Amino acid sequence: MDKFVIEGGAPLVGEIETSGAKNAALPALAACLLTEDTVTLHRIPRVKDITTMTSLLRSIGAAVDADGGTVRVEARHVEKPEAPYELVKTMRASSLVLGPLAARFGRARVSIPGGCAIGARPINLHINGLEQLGAQVTQTHGYIEAVAPPEGLRGSVVTFDRITVTGTEDLMMAAVRAKGETILENAAREPEVQDLADLLIKMGAKVEGGGTSTIRIEGVPSLHGAEHAIIPDRIEAGTFLIAGAITGGNLLVTACEPEHLNALVAKLRQCGVTVEQEGPGALRVRRTGTLRAVDMITEEHPGFPTDLQAQFLALMTQADGISIITETIFENRFMHASELMRMGANIRIEGRQAIVAGPRELSGAQVMSSDLRASASLVVAALVARGETVIDRVYHIDRGYEAIEAKLVKAGARIRRV
Length: 418
Ligand code: EPU
Fold this sequence. Notes:
The protein has 14 helices and 24 strands.
């Protein structure tokens, strides 16, 4: 099992380029199942979750051809409209094939995802939505089976009980080939949802309001091939901005979308960090003075993203004062706190809040990754810790960060994989 060995204390200086967004690439790949034509996707990040999704598409019967960051998918023949347990258990986003398979083939069978390190994460809202579109959904032997009526799925009004990102995406993909109009109310407004809407429109779908809380879709009988470049990964870019800030560096994060990072940039500025836009797709982060502690609450977009909470918490261990961090999206997303405490951080967890008192000098230690973003927070902390930190189970970070150690080394970090 790979580990990272990080020698802290080097400020990040120079440039780091952002990759394509994992969480936009995953639904885009699932959307390729909606047509028998070839869909060409650019800027697909080379991370483990993407390999899992392409394995899933192949097991369903699609031809997938990857050339660097460009992936071509042709789902002409589908042998088995099914997402097996072996793939779903390693990546919950496999359930994104439910909507497109039910829409195109009238049938989908997907293993029920279990709980994961950050919470129970049920998919009841995906299921309720599909039922609204006329599917019969049954659960047996650990699988969900959705069967459309003989005349196909039919448009409907779906009001989500709570905001769900992949639930919104799954339902969009089901609705684009349903008969009639679907209105998705209380839809997720994340940029990744908007990116999926843009791709679906290029494929011939009629979608309005992607990126807003009401999405209107007029079903069409078939979709066609398209070419699309995935948006930049705002969580990866945000992780680098936080890493630049914590190390007191001067770092230009390029190929990002500053608009998607407004909530983080505002928080960083409140902490006394300088963040400036340089050109259309680059943000420079600089810090010379002390960091001020600020409170933060995770929210759905455009609020502060839960996927940056762990990294921001690491930053607050170095800030002067008390910071209260409230996690509202997932019920168990503070696994990194106990590892940060082993490095010397002063953190108290009270239910959904983490109370961080800083600044505390961190010292290198052996620590364990528990999930993707938790491991990113340990990397961020290790970059300022005194001495050497060894991070175990970095396969978690490989799920969602493309070549993170190579990118950090380029900016002066002392990090190696062993
Ligand atoms: N929820 C339900 N029922 C559902 C769906 C969701 O109760 O049917 C609850 C969840 O348990 C959670 C909340 O609703 O408490 C929000 O979950 P959401 O469905 O929005 O999460 P997701 O779609 O499963 C995506 C990202 C996550 C990110 C969340 C929140 C992808 C592939 N995953 O997950 O990304 O944290 O949205 O923004 O897009 C990551 O990249 O590290 C990651 C975990």
